[in-house]
Amino acid sequence: MWEIRFRKEEYSIRSGVAKGRETPAWFLDCPELLPGEEFYLVSFWRLNTERQVSNGVLGRIPWSRAMDYAVNQGVAPDMLEAFWRILSALDTAYLELQAGEYNKTMQAQKRDLQRRSKSRRDYGRS
Q1: 122 Cβ contact partners less than 8 Å away, ≥ 6 residues apart
Q2: I need a labelling partner for 43 at 20 to 30 A (CA). Which of 28, 33, 113, 126 fits?
Q3: pLDDT, tens only, 77-110
Q4: How many CB atoms are located within 10 Å of the residue 4 CB?
């Protein structure tokens, strides 16, 4: 989850640090990757482009694409299930983060629409 959030907010964090702002607490809690774990993150970001989008909603990374990628990368057959579970956990965290951002955007648009509607009604009263 840390890596996914960092990728999304990297520019803001670096910009804030350059301006002397305090670094967010979650950023300081960066997990240390064990040897070989970076492979899963790199795999996730490469496969992230394979997901489908329908009506603005992100779908999951397709299992078939993940398996093709894993086999092409030389993942041993007895490790394919573990690869999928790790990739799927990263995908779930990513989708949850994206859904939260989508909900924030929708709420902001709704508030903006309500303000505009109210100002139009008020304009008609004058």
Answers
A1: none
A2: 28
A3: 999 999 999 999 999 988 988 876 656 666 767 7
A4: 20
